């Protein structure tokens, strides 16, 4: 008869298998991009943030598609094949490949937070493919608040360990821990709930890989060479990347800054205002 330790080990192994299988099924066959609207209209590219939650743009899509063919670049997932080369340059090359596949010579690019860093790499390394940049709650150098540093130092290692066996559980924990960074206490409860729901379904290994490249980020010496007209959009109450937005503005040669109500995710809380901002900017207004 098996010992109690063997039974516990078997149950844990079974639960881990179920959890990892669920993660694989949830993300199997995901497209490299999604398109919305009329392909005959001028294009605009949207890049989601760290968790890859393109759903945060959903509220803005009805307005955007009235005037633009919208391409949402789905951040590639990390795998055994690309793990060692999973860098911002790799993600920027993926964007250029999507434009090739869609036969788009060049387009304005909108990037949220982590996605804004991808957008800047694309603009620097594939300069002719990016006509304008709209960077939402983004950064050129990671600067951690005390609270975020504590989470990185003490909570993140625990999440990573759990994620080896239970990626869904670990991602849900991460979503709960990270929610207070990107949603301000003054914002409605639904914003926190929506963020946790969407971020909990993110591909955990990919989120961890993205954290590994954004935590040490410092491209301050490179962004001064951006030639594209750039607009920085931020939430007026954002305590997570508000300071990094100001720092980025000081570095860019041709940029302005516009505030929207809310915190780190103003495209989620003010989608129509965000869409109008995007459409006016990419049209040169």
TrEMBL record:
Residues 44-276 form the AB hydrolase-1 domain. It comes from the Eukaryota. SUPFAM superfamilies: alpha/beta-Hydrolases. Pfam families: Abhydrolase_6. InterPro entries: AB_hydrolase_1, AB_hydrolase_fold. This is AB hydrolase-1 domain-containing protein. It comes from Aureococcus anophagefferens.
């Amino acid at each position: 008869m098996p010992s109690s330790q063997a039974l516990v080990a078997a149950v844990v192994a079974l639960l881990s298998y179920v959890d990892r299988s669920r993660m694989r099924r949830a993300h199997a066959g995901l497209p490299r991009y999604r398109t919305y609207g009329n392909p005959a209209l001028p294009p605009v590219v949207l890049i989601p943030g760290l968790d890859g939650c393109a759903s945060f743009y959903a509220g803005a899509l009805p307005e955007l598609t009235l005037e633009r063919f919208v391409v949402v670049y789905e951040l590639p997932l990390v795998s055994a094949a690309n793990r060692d080369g999973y860098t911002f340059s790799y993600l920027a090359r993926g964007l250029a490949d999507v434009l090739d596949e869609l036969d788009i010579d060049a387009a304005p690019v909108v990037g949220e937070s982590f996605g804004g860093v991808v957008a800047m790499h694309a603009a620097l390394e594939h300069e002719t493919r990016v006509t304008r940049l709209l960077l939402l709650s983004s950064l050129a150098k990671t600067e951690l608040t005390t609270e975020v540093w504590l989470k990185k130092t003490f909570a993140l290692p625990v999440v990573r360990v759990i994620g080896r066996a239970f990626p869904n559980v670990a991602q849900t924990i991460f979503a709960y821990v990270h929610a207070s960074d990107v949603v301000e206490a003054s914002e409605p409860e639904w914003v926190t709930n929506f963020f946790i729901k969407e971020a909990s379904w993110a591909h955990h290994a990919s989120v961890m890989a993205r954290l590994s490249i954004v935590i040490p980020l410092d491209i301050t010496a490179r962004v001064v060479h951006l030639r594209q007209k750039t607009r920085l959009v931020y939430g007026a109450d954002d305590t997570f990347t508000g300071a990094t937005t100001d720092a980025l503005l000081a570095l860019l040669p041709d940029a302005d800054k516009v505030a929207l109500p809310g915190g780190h995710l103003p495209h989620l809380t003010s989608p129509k205002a965000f869409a109008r901002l995007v459409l006016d900017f990419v049209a040169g207004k």
